[in-house]
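Researcher: I'd like a candidate sequence for this fold, 246 residues long. If you have to choose between options at a position, lean toward the conservative one.
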């Protein structure tokens, strides 16, 4: 239950998450590598994000909250006990994102950073950079290579602006349409560094190469990717060999 008129609390990082149930998460990737495997990988994403941001949120002075689509008790088996959680609500992604902003505002947070859980390599600096931008801008955006964004930050007080309605979510136009919506509301937006979401097998391999160079950034993901990429490469080689035999 969200309590209204709470005391002012500063900043919140909200990570949007689902329980890693096969066939319900990372389905585009699952169509390539199998739904069980893509769900395992997403579970590793969540565990790495939880470990990183549980630590750095204390160090950097903001609260970590998880916006969960599933029963919080179920999510604890992935994220660990004692995590702050709110339930996602809304008919679509745009409504759910705006509801997160409204819920954190009701809890007393002056600024909210929302981070997706499809980019386990996002560094702690991305959040502090976004918060720094919100000192002067109304909105901070973290562009993704596919035309969307992996992070959005807003000022909550006195009331969050709805920068999400009218944006066609889950398309390559999300970032551009959001920027247009921000401007139409008379607000200002600034941008942090671009990165990528992991939605396809090519994205998975790209992430594997990145984590080979910096495995400590997401150790559980890195370990599992070594297995999955090896399997993917082997399957590709066997497919090529069978094709050559025909």
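Model: Candidate sequence:
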């Amino acid at each position: 239950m969200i309590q209204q008129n709470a005391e002012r609390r500063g900043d919140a990082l909200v990570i949007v998450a689902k329980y890693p149930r096969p066939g319900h998460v990372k389905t585009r990737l699952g169509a390539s590598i199998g739904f069980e495997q893509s769900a395992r990988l997403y579970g590793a994403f969540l565990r790495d994000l939880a470990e990183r941001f549980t630590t750095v949120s204390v160090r950097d002075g903001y609260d970590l909250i998880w916006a969960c689509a599933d029963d919080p008790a179920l999510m604890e088996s992935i994220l660990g006990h004692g995590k702050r959680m709110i339930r996602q609500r809304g008919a679509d992604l745009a409504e759910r994102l705006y509801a997160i902003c409204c819920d954190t505002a009701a809890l007393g947070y002056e600024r909210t950073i929302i981070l997706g859980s499809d980019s386990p390599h996002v560094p702690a600096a991305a959040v502090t950079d976004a918060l720094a931008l919100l000192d002067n801008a109304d909105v901070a955006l973290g562009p993704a290579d596919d035309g969307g964004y992996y992070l959005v930050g807003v000022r909550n007080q006195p009331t969050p602006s709805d920068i999400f309605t009218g944006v066609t979510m889950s398309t390559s136009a999300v970032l551009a349409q959001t920027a247009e919506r921000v401007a139409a509301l008379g607000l200002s937006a600034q941008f942090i560094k671009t990165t990528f979401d992991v939605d396809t097998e090519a994205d998975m391999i790209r992430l594997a190469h990145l984590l080979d160079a910096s495995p400590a950034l997401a150790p559980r993901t890195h370990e599992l990717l070594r297995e999955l990429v090896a399997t993917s490469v082997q399957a590709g080689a066997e497919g090529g060999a069978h094709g050559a035999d025909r």
